[in-house]
Amino acid sequence: MIILDPGFPDPFAGNGEIRQRPRAVRILSPGLNAPYAMQATISLERQLPSGIVSSVTYSWVRGVHQFRSRNINAPLPGTMQRPFPARGPILALESVARSVRHELRVNFRRRLGGRLTLFGNYVLSSTHSDGDGPFSLPADSYDLRAEWGRATIDARHRFFLGGFIRLPWSLRVAPFIILRSGQPFNITTGQDDNHDTAFTDRPSLADPSTPGAIITPLGAFDPHPAPETPVIPRNFGQGPGFANVNLYVTKTFGLGSRKSPGWPSTTGAQKRSAARGEHADRRSRAPMARRSSDVNRRSRHRPRSGIGGFGGRGRFGRGAGRWGRWRGFSEYRYNLTIGLRIRNLFNRLNLGQPSGVLTSPFFGQANSARPPRRIEVQLRFNF
Description:
Layout: E1 2-4, E2 17-19, E3 25-28, E4 36-48, E5 52-71, E6 90-112, E7 116-129, E8 149-150, E9 157-167, E10 171-180, E11 184-185, E12 204-205, E13 214-216, E14 219-222, E15 237-238, E16 242-258, H1 268-299, H2 320-326, E17 332-343, E18 374-382
């Protein structure tokens, strides 16, 4: 049921009007389409002085036929009469929402000697849409243009910095720093002025001297705007930022005998197959040897582009062997690795999204928080 102007603390004690809430049904729109996204990307990668490999990437992403719901039996503006009076809300799942994202990403990576590797990225982005998912409802089902605003995932700035540090006594340390600016939240009046049984009505901006205006740190709002008054955009509020430091420490103990130079050994058939492949490879490379000799002489004097990390000798370093040793493998036949994973190292309080109900006494206050410090101990045995 719905009680207009209820009493407090007993909602039935006042003189409020009691209405039976009509049953809502969900249907699929006849013209439902599968959502998809179109993306265009341009990237530039360069090796800078001091062994820094950096890249700059711009991406434009447009999503079309995104899902959202709409009450096709909402009361008509001005008359407050439903198109189908005998029925309640009819929530149609439609594929008419859209989104646009602009993103500028800067990546960098540098290897300092054989014991330290730094890497990170910074992202400057902007994401707008007119729907927040298949079950989101607009404030006014007959004015969908007013729903265009910031997406719930829109964070203007994102920064990540990580590193791999190799210390003596087979100690490995991996710190990770994550920073993010706040994400938006929707501001609603907490009332149902258009009688569509959805409490998604948004206020309008007002002068602080306007009678009935609600003054908040985000501005002054009119919770009962006139029918022709523009309301604030969707997701008008700005939530708190996020900062976190994670740490991963491992210690490896080598057990058993040391591995032989050829460990693991190969069979005779494998050796013969490898010899045949090497002979064929030399024959195929013979015509190219003379033409590539000048290139080889020039490249011999160039600085190495590898900066350590996850792959072959290209942009990420000298091979997977170093990454394998980081994970705890050593020259011993058996390896026992003890790991310590600490999330939210400094136990920082990261608040959740604030309450967006304008008429609530908790408006603008967060009622949740991100997880506190968490410590995990891991044990791995390799053989």
